Amino acid sequence: MIMVEGEVSGKKYREPFSKGVLARSLTRAEMDPNKAYTFASQIEAHLRKEGIKVISLDDLVGIVRARLKEENEEVAEKYGLWKRIRTCKEPLIILIGGASGVGTSSIAFEVANRLGIRNMTSTDIIREVMRKMVSKELLPTLFESSYTAYKSLRIPPSPELDEVIIGFRDHVDTVSVGVEAVIERALKEGVSIVIEGVHIVPGFINEELVSKHNVAMFVLTLQDEEVHKGRFYSRCRQLWARRPLKRYMNYFGAIRKTHKYFENQAQKYDIPVIENIDVTTTIDCIIETITKTYGREEDVRETKS
Ligand SMILES: Nc1ncnc2c1ncn2[C@@H]1O[C@H](COP(=O)(O)OP(=O)(O)O)[C@@H](O)[C@H]1O
Ligand SMILES: O=C(O)[C@@H](COP(=O)(O)O)OP(=O)(O)O
Predict the structure, then answer these.
(1) Strand (E) or helix (H) holding 115
(2) Does the chain have fewer CB atoms within 10 Å around its N or its C terminus?
(3) What is the pLDDT of residues 66-105, one digit of tens each?
(4) Which of 146, 200, 221 to probe ligand 2 with, by most ligand atoms within 8 A of CB?
């Protein structure tokens, strides 16, 4: 049996070489799953041929990268990025916001999967917990959707202001308190997490948290209204979907207003905006942006992981 030796907090540990584990990390670098398993088998054969009984994790990664480079430069680079992010000292907090339907939950799931992040939550869930804690009378907009919050504003805004946006801001402002609590807890515990939803709005989450180099915020957009509408159709077609299409179509105008607001806020606070047309392009863009601020030499653990 070939043993792989790693090091955590100065302590060495050994575990058997697993083709499955290696193949999974290669699929995260977008290698086809069948190919990844074959590739992992070839690596195992190579180690056996060389008579290697124990190999350090760093040496294994080195061999994998060298072999990958010969086969596919792009996968080799993505594997390198993934490995770097995995060996960082600080937890990584990824915040993905955007108007209802632009694809925040789908993209958050894919990004978490690609980076091997095991924690993911939606701001809708945070909102649901908060709804159990306060009365409707105290915070009426919390009990609305982000795009219908204007209906429950206690004081109607003056006519020159857009009531949809005033309602949206009020609603987001409240849920942001819960979002901040999740971020603070993740930082305290040292746990990486992806948080997604309509309540991740630039300018609403404590600047001190958002400006940390290991907290990365993104806004997803869909410029084409028909494409945006299409996403609600595709979401409602899924068998488990419980949210009626009609509701989103009825409020589509209001949802687009929140979309515009996201764009403006992102520009104001210098938050990357990604047009979520193609899933792969969106994910690559998020991961590339993250590696510019996180995953630098000084972020990576001194000890071998
Ligand atoms: N880049 C994309 N290309 C095609 N379809 C997408 C893309 N992103 C999301 N979708 C689809 O659009 C629908 C809405 O996406 P979802 O992630 O539920 O949006 P949100 O969480 O922002 O409301 C889903 O059916 C999803 O599969
Ligand atoms: O408040 C909102 O805008 C949506 C957000 O959900 P997503 O569309 O982002 O999943 O929640 P709803 O009240 O429609 O269930």
Answers:
(1) helix 104-115
(2) N
(3) 999 988 888 888 888 777 777 777 899 999 999 999 999 9
(4) 146
Which of these, 101, 127, 117, 63, lies nearest to 231 by C-alpha position?
101
Strand bridging mode 193-197 / 93-97:
parallel
From CA 120, how far away is CA 100, in angstroms rounded?
Answer: 18
Residue pLDDT, tens place only, 31-74: 888 899 999 999 999 999 999 999 998 899 999 989 999 888 88
| 52 HSE (CA, 13 A, CB side) | 21
Nearest-angstrom CA–CA distance, 159 and 190: 47
Pocket flag, ligand 2, residue 231 (CB < 6 Å): no
CA distances (Å), origin 162, targets 176, 184, 221, 225, 257? 21, 33, 21, 20, 9
Q: Is the CB of 198 under 6 A from ligand 2?
A: yes
Domains of the chain: 3-86 (no CATH), 93-299 (3.40.50.300)
